[in-house]
Amino acid sequence: MAGHSKWANIQHRKGRQDEKRGKIWTKLIKEITVAAKLGGGDLATNPRLRLAIDKAKDSNMPNDNVQRAIQRGTGSLEGVNYEEIRYEGYGINGAAVIVDCMTDNRTRTVAEVRHAFTKYGGNMGTEGSVAFLFQHCGQLLFAPGTNEDQLMGCALDAGANDVITHDDGAIEVLTSVADFSKVQDALRTAGFQAELATITMRPETDISLEGDQAESMQKLLDVLENLDDVQEVFTNASIQ
Fold first, then answer.
1. Which among 82, 89, 111, 14 is positioned nearest to 231, based on CA atoms?
2. For the whole model, what pTM was predicted?
């Protein structure tokens, strides 16, 4: 199944994240804390915690930081009580944006998110205004040159929902949220290491932006991602 170009956008995004490693660690600590609070500290029974710890390892976070976050989540250590909130809105040329936050102060967070949208050419929407344009799913992305037939067979046998080969040769495996860890484990065992492995809000269709529109949209996304209370930003904008 053919799809649009994916690899360059993913590499560009990863590069930007690497530049902000300190902020990424802060976001991951929040995610680990909340995942442990909601599902307990056992990785075998808490796939959300396992995924957060995998991301922490990929970001070279020290294990002591990870363990303290788990202890704060399970109550062994005192910590801040975070609330999860999602905001939805529109960016440049009507591109959809979802902003997932963790905060100890809802009033502060909504004011900062709304200000970012307003200042950088977007606008806040109501709950559910753009979420229907996205699929909540597991996503694994493999580099161009990966053996497509072997990967597809292994992924589908493990319970993946779809395998998409993009124009640039990147291969994307999509799973249900529940089956993500099972499929990832099966692919790792078979020797396939994903460049990106995450639970995401994946756009059903993309809006292509170029030139000034692309620059303005990237600025809005960067500002949102840099807010202290923002964990993830999802968009259907494909920035060229």
1. 82
2. 0.85
